[in-house]
Each structure stands twice: as structure tokens, then as C-alpha cells.
Amino acid sequence: MAGIVIVAHTPLASALCEFAAHVFGEIPERVIAIDVPAYEDTKQTQSRVLEAVQSAQGGSGTLILTDIMGATPANVASRVANMPEFKLPIAVLTGVNLPMLLRAIGHRTESLDSLTEKALLGGQQGVLRLRESVKI
Description:
This protein is of the alpha/beta class and 136 residues long. The protein contains 5 helices and 4 strands, in the order βαβαβαβαα. It has one domain: Rossmann fold (3-Layer(aba) Sandwich), CATH 3.40.50. Helices cover 45% and strands 17% of the residues. Strand 1, helix 1 and strand 2 form a beta-alpha-beta unit. Helix 4 packs antiparallel against helix 5.
């Protein structure tokens, strides 16, 4: 089973993890949130992400979900994913949203490539324009 590490600006990563706990009754195993405060040094962020990836690593590798391309969470995740010391693969997706996270958690038993593609598709399919009022 693949690990999932959510790396995002404070408090988004924790909020996404709390949502997963709401849906699944608890935070799923090997799902870790790393909130990145605005003032934190990049080296400290990288150290925390590295530790989280090592803790989350499952038999299939680790998927890192970040909030926005070009910002510290994505830049650090990209650096960590390319470190040679990891024996298992690491994939990184940016633009995390709730549908992407749910899809990722639901497909963690698949290969990392398959999981990554399904999470990406879930994130894309979760963005819709509602043209009519939603009736509750």
C-alpha cells in the first residue's frame, strides 16, 4: 500500500487530513499532513517532508500531494522526490483538492503509477461548474 503525504500551506494540509478522518472514521494509515507556515525556513520544511515520506513509505512508494505549483510545498516535495536515498518511488501532484485526496486514498493498493493517474483524474473530475441551484 502506498503512503500519502499532503504538503500545503498552513492549515490546508491538516484540514484535508481531518476531512479524510471525517469520511473514513479516522485518518487512514500512512496518510500524513505537513502544514507549511509562511515564516518557516525551506530547509526545515524539507526536513519535515523527508521525515514524513520516510514514515509514510508503503510497499508501493509514496504519493505527495501539494497545493500549488511553484510554491514552497511543491518545490520541497519535488526536491525530496528526487533524492537518491529512497529505494521506493515517489510521485508528486500539485493542485490538491478533496476529490483528489479521496481518490488517492481509495486506490492506495494499486501501483504508484496507477494511483497517481487515478488521483490526478479524480482531482480534475472534481472541479465542476454548477449551472443550477443545488437542492438539499
